[in-house]
Amino acid sequence: MKLGGHETFYPRPGWFTKGLLHLLSDGLGTFSSPAVADELGVGRNMAKSIGWWLHVMGLGSRASRIGPMELTDFGAVVAERDPFMVQLGTWWLLHASAMTSATESSLPWFFSPQREDRADRTALTEALLKEVSSGKARPPAIKTVQREVAAVLHAYAVPVPRPCADPEDNLGSPFHRLDLWRHLRASDRFERSEPTAAPPEALGTVLSALATNQSAQSLQEGLLLDIAVSSPLIGRAGALFGRSREGVLDIVDAGESALGPSTMSLRSLAGERVVTVMSARAATWATTFYDRIATKSREDAA
Question: What is the strand order of the sheet 272-278 is part of?
Answer without folding.
Answer: 224-228, 272-278, 264-269
